[in-house]
Amino acid sequence: MSSAMILCVSGISLIIVVFGIYAIIQKMKFALQNRADDMVNKIRKENQTQIEHLEKKLDKFYISCKLETLCFIGIGGGGCNIVEDISQIDKWHKFIHINSDLQALQLKTSKDKILLGYDKKEGLGCGGVAECGAQLINSSSKKQLFKSIKSFEKVYVIATLGGGVGSGATSEIVEYLNSLDKEVYVFVTMPFSFEGKTRKSVAQSALGSIQNVSSNVTIMNNDDLIKKNAEEELGTRENFKLSSQIIYKQIVTSFRC
Fold first, then answer.
1. 145 three-class SS
2. CB contact at 8 A, 86 and 244
3. In a 3-state reduction of DSSP, which class is residue 164?
4. Which is deepest, 1, 72, 221, 225, by most CB within 10 Å?
5. CB within 8 A of 106, min separation 6: which ones?
6. What string of pLDDT tens digits covers the 257 residues of the chain?
7. Closest CA to 161 of 131, 126, 204
8. Phi and psi at residue 30, in whole multiples of 5°?
């Protein structure tokens, strides 16, 4: 056999060996990939099982503590902010946001959002005018609210008074909830002293309207809430969040173990 022939055969043999090694490497690669995928899926399944187990334990804890799933309704910008803060504390409850400001409403994480008076205000809000808030409650918004709260016997309404929707719409909404034979508890905050006499006057008028339709009204002064938070040396938003926690604790105290 000539040297050229030998070189040719050797070259072919080398190519076959290389392809063989490549095939083995690819096979090992696929095997390792499949094994890795199996391990990842196993870990995911185990984690999911642990999560489901934890959720079941939490559900049992809630039942053993006789905790109710509560329904919180935030009305207006301030009320919606408080309800949003509460939803970050305890996700197990129902949270409903009612406002005429579309942009503010879109920032809330709850699925239950009721935009008031889009046909009149086009989602731009009431600009702090209480009379505007009162005029935006109609059959459509009531129908939306009914769908959201129909399975609840108790409803917790939260509003900050002195502005537009919170001051104007709260009494209308509470009166509607009363007509549905719901057990309604209202929590309202009064303006800071530095907000001026006008907002204070609006808040006092709104409070009177709310008390005319509900005997279960808890009144909290923003000045007092901030005094409780003064030692924390927090910023404005953090102060409001801490105030939301105080409100929430007042609401759920009777439901804890």
1. helix
2. yes
3. coil
4. 72
5. 113
6. 555 555 555 556 656 655 666 667 767 767 666 776 666 566 566 656 665 665 565 555 554 454 567 899 999 999 999 999 888 887 778 999 999 888 988 999 888 999 987 777 777 778 877 788 788 888 888 889 999 998 888 899 999 999 889 898 999 999 999 999 999 999 999 988 888 899 999 999 999 999 999 999 999 888 877 665 555 555 555 666 777 777 777 776 655 44
7. 204
8. -65, -40
- In terms of residues, how long is the chain? 257
The structure's pTM equals 0.69
Q: Which long-range contacts (CB under 8 A, 24 or more apart) does 237-246 make?
A: 240/81, 240/82, 240/85, 241/85, 243/82, 243/189, 244/81, 244/82, 244/85, 244/86, 244/89, 245/85, 245/89, 246/220
